[in-house]
Design goal:
Layout lengths: L2 H8 L4 H23 L6 H22 L2
Helix pairs in contact: 1-3, 2-3
């Protein structure tokens, strides 16, 4: 998913909703790391994109909490 599309999805969400999305992304990253340690094939680009989405969410939470 492109970053701009992802940012559009976050418009109007509360801090708690953003936190839930962040937790879901953290669990996806953890699952990918687990697959990496067990020897399964992991798409490293997918992990990179998840981390990028997480950064967008953290920025949005920061912006919402400092209004």
């Amino acid at each position: 998913m492109k970053t701009l599309d992802f940012k559009k999805q976050l418009i109007g969400l509360s801090i708690s909703e953003l936190s839930i999305k962040a937790k879901a992304i953290y669990s996806q990253i953890a699952q990918n790391k687990l697959e990496l340690t067990t020897g399964k094939l992991v798409n490293k680009r997918a992990v990179f994109n998840l981390r990028k989405q997480l950064a967008v969410i953290k920025t949005k939470i920061y912006e919402n909490s400092h209004r």
